[in-house]
Amino acid sequence: VILAVKPQNFIEIKEDLIQSVAARHTVVSIMGGVSLRAISAKLNCKNIIRSMPNLALRYQASLTGWFAHPECSKRSSRTAKEIFLLWGRDIKCRKENQLNDITAAAGSGPSYFLMIADLIYRYCRKRGFDEKKSLLISRQVLKGADRCYSSMPIKPLEIIKKITSKGGTTEAAFKCFKQQKVENKIMSGIIKAGKRAKELEKILNK
Fold first, then answer.
1. pLDDT tops 90 at residue 189
2. Which residue numbers delimit the Pyrroline-5-carboxylate reductase dimerisation domain (predicted)?
3. Domain boundaries, the chain
């Protein structure tokens, strides 16, 4: 059973669905913020796995963080993991509250990269490229960066250093980013996303 309703609608799940879930069933939740305890109490089931995939699930490229109920069977955990691998890659969290961090880093993560892609797209449009070429440039840059990062067994900053030439264009861009404190602002946004995930969890599990 995969619970894919909006978190705020979970309390409205119909009684016939609740009755159809037996203790032997495996329940995988992709509802953000609804705790294992709340789901277990509602469905009277322990074989529950909370998960947080992202937008790339539909392309089998998601990063899905997950955590199982303490009394969840190994069989149910294996079944859930098999599902997550169909969606892309998976990470088992050490604690349930780490799902809030997964939400901030991976759940919302694609949007951060797409923001950069949008800036490249808009720059190209301003410089006279038509929409088709501007989209091609931004998409291919993102695709190329992903290929480099996926293929090179080093940290992102080390790849940037390899790309950057002294006195070159990349160095000029990053000097500007540093002056404008761009990194700090983006990190603040990611931290804010994590805090909001925790706030929503408290609201949904009152």
1. yes
2. 96-200
3. 2-107+197-204, 113-153
